[in-house]
């Protein structure tokens, strides 16, 4: 078995004096899609924010390709190979599709022909974005905004893409498109994906393995085939 790309061991996070992560342990291997599941409020987003350096660790270990992330600022984690699509997508509503993408390139210092090539790759992956380059982000549908947010995160060629509930508030036909995109990315062999998601069938369709969290810790994990209806009932349903 290959060395993990991402390794999180016993990660603890406090927010306002409350222990929100109580020792999260998980791994993502190269070229793997891993679902991080769990009911509302169990700490999924906090786990991703801690990975991005947006929440400090109280204790624990986080490594990417063997290098510790602990204490690194967010921009250094992005340079180390983490791409992040936050819950709710966070695109700029008053900027056009292309401006939304270019801002990320500017932030990461990608210029000239490299910038053009990175944009073209995203447009190839998401033809709808190419069609709507001049539209304002705010007028796109939820699914198009999600594609824009994923495309933006891919511009910096992350080794690991962190996705927070990409299907939330998106209609079924577009969910399928996003699933196709994730499978395409996986098939390209270029990156791994840690997918925070509550939509069980979506996880079954795209993930290789799963972790289920409850109250700040992982309670069960395994290959996605082990995500049976019984497991869902016991660990994931409200
Ligand atoms: N800024 C904050 N201030 C106070 N408490 C917070 C804050 N952010 C998160 N929490 C608390 O931490 C816990 C975990 O939140 P988190 O957002 O990680 O959950 P989640 O699993 O992503 O939930 P959801 O599925 O609803 O997005 C919750 O109990 C939440 O109330
Ligand atoms: Mg969340």
Major sheet: order of its strands?
6-7-8-3-9-10
Would you give the CATH topology of the largest domain?
Answer: Rossmann fold
Uncertain ranges? none
CATH architecture designation of the largest domain: 3-Layer(aba) Sandwich
What is the ordering of alpha helices and beta strands? EEEHEEHEHHHHEHEHEEH
Helix content: 25-40%
Q: Any idea what the shape is?
A: globular
Output mean pLDDT: 95
Distinct helical segment count: 9
Radius of gyration: 17 Å
What small molecules does the structure contain?
adenosine-5'-triphosphate, magnesium ion
Compact description:
37% of the residues lie in helices and 26% in strands. The protein contains nine helices and ten strands. By secondary structure, the chain is α/β, with parallel strands linked by helices.
Please characterize this protein's 3D structure.
With 238 residues, the chain is α/β, with parallel strands linked by helices. It folds into two domains: 1-81 and 158-238, Rossmann fold; 91-157, no CATH class. Helices cover 37% and strands 26% of the residues. It is built from nine helices and ten strands. The strands form two sheets. The protein has a six-stranded mixed beta sheet with strand order 6-7-8-3-9-10, with helices on both faces. Strands 2-1-4-5 form a four-stranded antiparallel beta sheet, with helices on one face. α3 runs parallel beside α6 (142-154). The chain starts with 5 loop residues before the first strand and ends with a helix. The model has no long low-confidence stretch (mean pLDDT 95). The structure holds adenosine-5'-triphosphate and magnesium ion (MG). Residues 44-45, 87, 164 line the site of magnesium ion.
């Amino acid at each position: 078995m290959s060395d993990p790309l991402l390794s999180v061991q016993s990660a603890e996070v406090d927010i306002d004096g409350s222990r929100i992560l109580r020792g999260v342990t998980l791994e993502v291997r190269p070229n793997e899609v891993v679902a991080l599941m769990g009911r509302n409020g169990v700490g999924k987003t906090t786990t991703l924010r801690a990975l991005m350096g947006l929440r400090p660790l109280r204790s624990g270990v986080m490594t990417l390709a063997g290098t510790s992330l602990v204490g690194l600022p967010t921009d250094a984690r992005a340079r180390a190979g983490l791409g992040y699509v936050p819950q709710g997508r966070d695109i700029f509503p008053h900027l056009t599709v292309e401006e939304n993408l270019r801002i990320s390139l500017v932030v990461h210092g990608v210029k000239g022909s490299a910038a053009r090539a990175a944009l073209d790759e995203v447009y190839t992956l998401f033809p709808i974005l190419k069609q709507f380059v001049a539209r304002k982000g705010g007028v796109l549908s939820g699914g198009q905004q999600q594609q824009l947010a994923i495309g933006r995160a891919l511009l910096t060629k992350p080794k690991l893409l962190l996705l927070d509930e990409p299907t939330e508030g998106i209609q079924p036909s577009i969910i399928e498109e996003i699933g196709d995109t994730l499978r395409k990315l996986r098939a390209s062999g270029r990156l791994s994906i840690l997918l925070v998601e509550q939509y069980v069938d979506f996880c079954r369709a795209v993930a290789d393995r799963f972790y289920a969290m409850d109250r700040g810790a992982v309670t069960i994990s395994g290959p996605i085939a082990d995500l049976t209806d019984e497991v869902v009932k016991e660990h994931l349903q409200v």
